Structure formats: structure tokens, C-alpha cells
Amino acid sequence: MTLVARLVVLFSIAVSVFATARAWARQAAEDENTIALRVAAIADARERLAEDIRATPIPTSGMTVDDFVRKSGGDERFAALIQKAEQIGGPREIGNEICQVRIELPGDRVAQCLVEIAAAHADRSPIKSEVLAKDLADWKNTRFSKLGTGRRPGRANALPPNGPNDKWRVVDDKTRQKAIEEAKADAVKQVLKSIAAIPIGDKTAGDIIQDADPVRVSLE
Predict the structure, then answer these.
(1) Degrees (nearest 5) of the Cα angle 187, 29, 217?
(2) Lowest model confidence (mean pLDDT) among 43-57, 95-109, 110-124, 196-210
(3) DSSP codes of every residue in 86-129
(4) Is the Cα torsion angle 60, 51, 144, 66 positive or negative in sign?
(5) Which helix (H) or strand (E) covers residue 48, if one does?
């Protein structure tokens, strides 16, 4: 095969690689954006759920869950409980800009956590664990649930706030851009791998691309 013929074949391969890589990278970027919005929505839901539970009064004690947790030194155990909240249903996506997720914790699990805090920090707890267990007995019929929202920054002014304490939970631009670049690089590698074994004369496409530094560098 002449040099001109090889270059023509190589050019055709390059065009195909670029087109395929661009499509794969675009899909990877969309997937990355979807994941980022879901993570943001879950983080927002957890924060809202924690705030809601902390603001809940503990019967007969004259204090809220927040008062109790702070005085008992149970913040770490309480935070671990919030992380275990379960997602209810699937995420609700509005285009590529917004994602909403609802999470929930049964009242008896919250009550159990608070009783465990009281027992583990008996020297600091303002309520004895056995007394707290009785006070929270009715929570077995309660469920704590919150909706979280993940938004792209550009949608901030286009939507009404989700509440007085609304906070955006978005992945920063630097992290997002890095993920997109990694997706593009991976797409190119996958395409190159898929055509590497194609025979071109006495060589393969992989050999030619590897030998042609300008082409290989432009693809990568």
C-alpha cells in the first residue's frame, strides 16, 4: 500500500474516531450531569430531613430533638442516621436542569437512635434513656420525609425557591469539567481500541496511528 493510500485510510479512520468519540463523550457528559444532579438532590434532601427532625419537639421534655442531640453530644450518631434515610421512588428529572429526590426515615428508627444516644452519653444526656423511650413510643406511627432538589446554577433564577432555607447543592464547575474531560479521553481510547486490529496493508490501524505522532496526539 502506497504512502498516499495509507494517509487516505488514516484520514478516514481519524474522521470516524472523532465522530464516534464526540458522540460517546457527549453521552458521558450527559450521564455525568445526571449523576451530579441526583447527588445534589440527595444531599439537599438529607439536609432538609435533618433540619426537620431536629426541629421536632420531644414530648413532655420541653426541648426539641436538636436541643437533646447537642446537649447529649450525639451529633455524630444522629448524622449517621440521616445518611441511612431511604429514597422513596425514583428521581424526578425535569429536563437536564433539575432533579428531585424524596427520602424518608421511619419514626421508630429516629426514636431508637435518640434512645441510643441517651444511653451512650448517660453522663451528658438531659433525659434518661428509659424515660426517652417512653416519651417517643408513639413515634412508631410517624414517618419523616423530605424532598430534595438538585439544580444547575443557570436555573436558579428561573425557579421559585423550595423553601425559606433553600440551598443549592451543585457540583462545582471545576469538578464537572474534569469529569467531562476524563469522559472524552476515555471515549477516544475506547474507539482507538476498537479499530486497532483493523488490517491496513502489512500493518494494523493501531500500528499506523501509533507511528503517526501528529495524528495520535490530535486524537488524544
Answers:
(1) 35
(2) 196-210
(3) EE-S--EEETTTEEEEEEEEEHHHHHHHHHHHHHHTTTT-SS-H
(4) negative
(5) helix 3-54
Q: Tell me, what amino acid is at 39?
A: V
How far apart CA 93 and CA 146 sit, in angstroms, is 16
Q: What angle do CA 46, 85, 70 make, to 5 degrees?
A: 60
Confidence of residue 195 (pLDDT cuts 50, 70, 90): low
At residue 59, the 3 state secondary structure works out as coil
The least confident of 37-46, 161-170, 210-219 is 161-170
Q: How many CA atoms lie within 13 A of 80 on its CB side?
A: 9
Kindly report which listed range (31-40, 51-60, 199-208) carries the lowest average pLDDT score: 199-208
Q: Is the dihedral of CA 204, 210, 212, 214 positive or negative?
A: positive
With cut-offs at 50, 70 and 90, classify the pLDDT of residue 95: confident
User: 164 phi and psi, to 5 degrees?
Assistant: -60, -25
CA distance linking residue 206 with residue 64, whole number of Å:
67
Question: What are the respective helix, strand and coil percentages of the chain, to the nearest 5?
Answer: 65, 15, 25
Cell numbers describing residue 110: 429516629
